[in-house]
C-alpha cells in the first residue's frame, strides 16, 4: 500500500477510518477522493458521516455539493425500495407467506449506522422454495414483469442460480430479487437455507430479517463467495459496521458469531471478512477471534488473497488503472465463478457471456417478454 | 485566463495530457482527448470559457477516446467516458463534439441533486429569468438562440438550475445544439452566430452547435430569480398568442419535466410551488420569430 500508485486508496481509506482528516484534505486530494468514492459508491456514506459530525460545512463547497447530491439520491432510493416492500407485502397479503428481507432493505429495517447514506436500488427477499412459484405467480398477476431474457438467461436463473429472474413493476422500476437460498445451488459451498429461516427475527406479521449473526454471515458470503469483489469495498464496510454495531449491542455477539459460522460451515468467508476489515478498515476486533474458526485458509491461499483482495475491493485510479489490479480482479472473477459452478458449466457460461458482449443484439430479444 | 488566450500548442497539450480544466457556470469540467478534429473544434467553440483556478475542485472528468470495434472494423469510432465509465455505446468519430456535449449534460443530470434541474431553456432580461421549459414541439433551443441575439443573457438552453432553498437560478452557458431545419433558420436570421460543424446522422438528426456569447460566459456567476415562465410552441402558420396559463397546469408541466423532481421529493414540491406562485405563467404559440420576440419583449419590459 505504500506504493505511490496506490495513493488514491489511502485517501479513501483514511476518510473512512478517520473522517476528521477530510477537513484537512487539499482541493487536489478532494478531487481525487470524490472520483474514487463515487466509483466505490461511498459518497452518500461520507455525506452521512460528515453530517453526523457537523463537518459538512467545513469542507470545500464543491465537495459538499456532490456529497449532498449523492445523499439525496440515496434517500430517494431508500424511499423507493421501502415502498416496493410495502407493495410486495400488499400483493402477497392473501397468501400469508413469510418473507425474509435481505441486504440493503434489511439494514434499513435494522437501523444500522451504515444504512442512511447507502445507495441500493434492489429489494432482496428470501422465501422457501415451496413458496417460490406462488410468489412469482402472485407478483406477475399483480403487475410485476420479468426483464426480457434470453432463453439461456432464463435457464441460468431457473436451474443454476439461487434466485429467480428479477421482477420489476413497470410503474416503479425497482428490481425485486426473490431468492430461495443464499448461494448458488451448483456451487462448492452447499448451504441449507433452513437454519437461516429458523433463526430469522420477526419485524412484523409475515415480515422477517436475518438474525444479527446471520446478517453478518450473509454479508461475508456475498463478498467472498457470490461476488467478484471488484469495487466492492462498501460491502466490506457494511460487514465492518455491522460487527461493530452488534458487538456494542450485545457483549457476547462475537462469540455467538464464531459459533454460528462453525455450525453452518461458514468459517472461510467470515475469516476473510474479519481479516480484511482489520487490514483495510483497521477493525479493532481481536485477532484471536478468527483462530476459533474452522476452515481457515492455508498459508499460501492467505498470501494470495492478502495481495489480490485489496486490489479488487478498492477502486481503480480513474486515470491510471493499474495493470496489477486488473490481473487481481481477473483472478478473483474466475475464482468467484469457480466457486459458484463446476468447470463443465463454467466454461460454456463464460464463452456465452463473451459472445454476448460482442453481439448484444443477437441475444437481447430472443427471449419472450412476459 | 480564457481558453482563447491559450496558444493552439498549449491547448493541445492540456487536452492530450492532464486535461483541459474549464469553468462552465457552477461546475468545473476536465476534458481529455487525443482526437485532432475535436481538439480543433473545441479551440474555437470553447474559446470564451475561463480556465479553472488552481485551488479549485473539478467535478466532472470526461474523456473522448478513439476505439476499435470487432464488429465494425472499418469505421472510426469514438467513446465518451466520464470518470472512466462509458454511458453510451461508441459512435462514429464525426459525432465526437455532439457526443461530448450530450455526455456532459447527462453527467450533470445524473449527479446533481443539490439543485433542482428543470428541463428548460433559461434567459435573463432586466435582472430576471425567463424560463422556456421543454415540451414536445417547443423548439426551446431555437427560440432561446433567437432571444440571446436580441439582448437577452443566456443562462442555458437545456437546464434551469434552481437552488430549492433560495429559488435563485444559476447560469450554465454551454454550447447550444441546433437541430435539422433550425440550423438554416438561425444562419438566415443571425448571420453573426458562431456555429460549429454540421454533424449529420446523430440520434437527433443533423446537429450544429452555437457558441454562447462571451458576455453570457463571463457573467455566468451572476444568478437571478425567475419572473416569467413561458411554454413555447411553434406551429406552422399559427397566429401569435401569448395566453396566461393556470398555475396548476404550469406546476404539472414543470414538475413532470424536471430531471430530478422525483429524487428531491418534498423539497422539489415546495420549490416548484413557490416558483409558479411567484412567476407569470404563459403559453406562447407562434409561427414567426419577429412576432414572438416582440411579444416576449413586451412581457419582460420593466
Oligomer: heterodimer
Please give the order of strands in the largest beta sheet of chain A: 3-4-5-2-1-7-6
Total number of distinct structural domains of chain A: 1
Q: What fraction of residues of chain B sit in β-strands?
A: 25-35%
Q: Compute the number of helices of chain B.
A: 10
Q: Whole-number average pLDDT of chain A?
A: 89
| Coarse morphology of chain B | globular
Task: Estimate the helix proportion of chain A, in percent.
Answer: 55-70%
Beta strand % of chain A:
5-15%
Distance between the termini of chain B: 35 Å
Low-confidence stretches of chain B: none
Sheet with the most strands, sense and barrel status of chain A: 7 strands, mixed
- CATH topology assignment of chain A: Beta Polymerase, domain 2
Radius of gyration of chain B: 19 Å
CATH class of the largest domain in chain B: Alpha Beta
Helix content of chain B: 25-40%
Structural class of chain A: alpha/beta
Under CATH at level 1, the class of chain A stands as Alpha Beta
- What is the domain tally of chain B? 2
Ends of chain A: how far apart?
50 Å
Please specify the SSE layout and strand pairing.
The complex is a heterodimer of chains A (370) and B (302).
Chain A (H helix, E strand, L loop, with lengths): L6 H11 L9 H13 L3 H10 L8 H32 L6 E4 H7 L12 E5 L2 H13 L3 E2 L4 H10 L6 E2 L6 E5 L14 H6 L1 E4 L2 E3 L2 H15 L6 H17 L3 H12 L2 H15 L17 H15 L9 H18 L2 H16 L1 H5 L6
Parallel strand pairs in A: 1-7, 2-5
Antiparallel strand pairs in A: 1-2, 3-4, 4-5, 6-7
Helix pairs in contact in A: 1-2, 3-4, 9-10, 9-11, 9-12, 10-12, 13-14
Chain B lengths: L7 H9 L3 E5 L2 E7 L2 H10 L4 E2 L8 E8 L9 E6 L8 E2 L3 H16 L4 E10 L2 E6 L6 H9 L4 E4 L2 E4 L5 E3 L5 E4 L1 H9 L9 E4 L2 E6 L3 H5 L5 E11 L6 E4 L2 H11 L3 H4 L1 H12 L2 E7 L2 H12 L2
Parallel strand pairs in B: 2-4, 8-15, 15-17
Antiparallel strand pairs in B: 1-2, 1-3, 4-5, 5-6, 7-8, 7-9, 7-10, 10-11, 11-15, 12-14, 13-14, 16-17
Helix pairs in contact in B: 7-9
Amino acid at each position: 500500500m505504500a506504493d505511490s500508485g496506490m495513493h488514491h486508496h489511502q485517501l479513501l481509506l483514511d476518510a473512512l477510518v478517520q473522517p476528521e482528516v477530510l477537513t484537512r484534505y487539499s482541493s487536489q486530494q478532494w478531487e481525487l477522493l470524490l472520483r474514487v468514492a463515487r466509483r466505490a459508491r461511498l459518497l452518500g456514506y461520507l455525506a452521512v458521516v460528515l453530517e453526523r459530525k457537523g463537518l459538512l460545512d467545513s469542507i470545500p463547497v464543491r465537495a459538499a455539493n456532490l456529497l449532498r447530491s449523492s445523499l439525496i439520491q440515496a434517500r430517494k432510493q431508500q424511499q423507493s425500495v421501502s415502498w416496493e416492500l410495502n407493495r410486495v407485502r400488499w400483493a402477497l397479503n392473501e397468501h400469508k407467506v413469510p418473507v425474509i428481507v435481505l441486504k440493503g432493505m434489511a439494514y434499513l429495517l435494522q437501523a444500522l449506522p451504515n444504512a442512511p447514506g447507502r445507495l441500493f436500488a434492489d429489494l432482496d427477499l428470501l422465501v422457501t422454495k415451496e413458496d417460490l412459484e406462488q410468489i412469482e405467480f402472485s407478483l406477475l398477476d399483480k403487475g410485476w414483469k420479468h426483464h426480457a431474457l434470453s432463453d439461456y438467461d432464463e435457464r441460468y436463473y431457473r436451474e443454476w442460480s439461487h434466485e429467480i429472474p428479477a421482477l420489476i413493476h413497470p410503474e416503479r422500476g425497482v428490481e425485486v430479487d426473490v431468492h430461495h437460498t443464499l448461494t448458488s445451488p451448483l456451487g462448492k459451498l452447499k448451504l441449507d437455507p433452513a437454519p437461516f429461516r429458523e433463526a430469522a427475527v420477526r419485524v412484523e406479521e409475515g415480515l422477517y430479517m436475518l438474525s444479527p449473526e446471520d446478517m453478518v454471515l450473509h454479508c461475508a458470503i456475498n463478498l467472498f463467495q457470490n461476488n467478484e469483489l471488484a469495487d466492492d469495498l462498501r460491502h466490506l464496510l457494511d460487514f465492518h459496521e455491522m460487527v461493530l454495531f452488534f458487538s456494542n449491542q450485545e457483549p457476547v455477539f462475537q462469540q455467538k458469531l464464531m459459533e454460528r459460522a462453525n455450525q453452518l460451515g461458514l468459517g472461510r468467508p467470515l475469516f476473510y471478512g474479519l481479516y480484511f476489515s482489520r487490514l483495510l478498515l483497521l477493525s479493532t476486533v481481536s485477532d484471536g477471534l478468527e483462530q476459533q474458526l474452522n476452515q481457515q485458509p492455508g498459508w499460501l491461499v492467505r498470501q494470495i488473497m492478502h495481495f489480490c483482495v485489496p486490489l479488487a475491493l478498492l477502486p481503480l485510479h480513474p486515470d491510471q488503472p493499474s495493470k496489477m489490479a486488473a490481473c487481481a480482479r481477473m483472478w478473483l472473477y474466475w475464482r468467484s465463478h469457480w466457486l459458484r459452478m463446476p468447470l463443465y458449466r463454467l466454461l460454456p457460461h463464460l464463452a456465452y457471456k463473451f459472445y454476448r458482449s460482442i453481439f448484444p443484439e443477437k441475444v437481447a430479444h430472443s427471449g419472450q417478454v412476459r | 485566463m480564457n481558453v482563447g488566450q491559450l496558444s493552439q500548442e498549449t491547448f493541445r497539450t492540456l487536452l492530450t495530457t492532464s486535461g483541459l480544466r474549464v469553468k462552465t457556470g457552477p461546475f468545473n469540467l476536465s476534458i481529455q482527448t487525443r482526437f485532432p478534429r475535436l481538439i480543433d473544434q473545441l479551440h474555437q467553440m470553447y474559446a470564451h470559457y475561463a480556465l479553472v483556478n488552481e485551488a479549485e475542485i473539478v467535478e466532472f472528468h470526461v474523456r473522448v477516446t478513439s476505439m476499435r470495434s470487432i464488429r465494425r472494423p472499418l469505421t472510426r469510432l469514438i467513446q465518451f467516458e466520464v470518470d472512466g465509465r462509458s454511458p453510451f455505446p461508441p459512435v462514429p468519430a464525426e459525432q465526437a463534439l455532439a457526443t461530448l456535449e450530450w455526455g456532459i449534460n447527462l453527467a450533470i443530470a445524473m449527479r446533481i441533486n443539490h439543485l433542482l434541474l428543470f428541463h428548460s431553456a433559461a434567459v435573463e432580461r432586466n435582472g430576471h429569468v425567463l424560463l422556456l421549459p421543454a415540451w414536445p414541439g417547443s423548439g426551446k433551443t431555437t427560440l432561446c438562440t433567437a432571444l440571446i441575439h436580441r439582448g437577452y443573457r443566456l443562462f442555458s438552453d437545456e437546464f434551469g438550475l434552481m437552488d430549492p432553498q433560495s429559488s435563485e437560478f444559476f447560469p450554465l452557458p454551454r454550447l447550444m445544439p441546433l437541430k435539422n431545419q433550425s440550423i438554416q433558420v438561425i444562419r438566415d436570421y443571425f448571420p453573426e452566430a458562431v456555429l460549429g460543424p454540421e454533424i449529420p446522422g446523430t440520434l437527433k438528426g443533423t446537429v450544429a452547435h452555437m457558441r454562447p456569447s462571451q458576455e453570457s460566459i463571463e457573467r455566468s456567476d451572476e444568478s437571478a430569480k425567475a419572473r416569467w415562465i413561458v411554454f413555447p410552441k411553434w406551429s406552422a402558420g399559427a397566429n401569435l398568442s401569448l395566453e396566461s396559463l393556470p398555475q396548476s397546469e404550469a406546476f404539472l408541466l414543470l414538475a413532470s419535466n424536471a430531471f430530478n423532481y422525483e429524487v428531491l421529493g418534498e423539497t422539489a414540491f415546495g420549490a416548484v410551488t413557490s416558483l409558479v406562485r411567484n412567476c407569470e405563467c404563459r403559453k406562447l404559440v407562434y409561427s414567426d420569430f419577429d412576432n414572438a420576440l416582440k411579444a416576449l419583449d413586451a412581457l419582460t419590459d420593466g
